[in-house]
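Second opinion, please. Pick holes in both lines of this record:
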Amino acid sequence: MDKPWGGELIWAWTDRYVGKILTIKAGKRLSLQYHETKDEWIHVIDGRLRLTLENDAGEVEIRELAPGESAHVPTRRQHRYEAIEPCRLIEVSTPELDDVVRLEDDYGREGTSAP
C-alpha cells in the first residue's frame, strides 16, 4: 500500500498479530502518534531510522537505529519514525491497525486514522 512517506506491505495478519514491512523515503516521517491498544516492535532491515519515542517517565527521547537494531513501542507511547536515509523496517504488532491517534502529521491527517 502506498503511503505519503513510502509504503507498507502486510505479509501476515491474524487475530493475534500483524507483520508489515515499512519502506520510508529519505527525509520522510510518519505521524507523531500513539495507540490506545496496539503494541508493536520494529526491526530495521536497512537504512537508518530516527525513532522518537516517549519513555516510561513520559519524556520524549530521540535515537537512531541502524540495520539489525530493534525497539519496542508500547501501547499509549507517543512515537514517530523518520528515515535519515531510505530505510526498510519490519513491524510486528497486535492486530488493531485502525488504532492510530495522530498528534502531528506532515500530510494533513491529524486526528484521523486515514492511511
Notes: The first strand starts at residue 2 and ends at 3. Residues 2-104 form a domain with the Jelly Rolls fold (CATH 2.60.120.10). The radius of gyration is 13 Å. The chain has a mean pLDDT of 96.
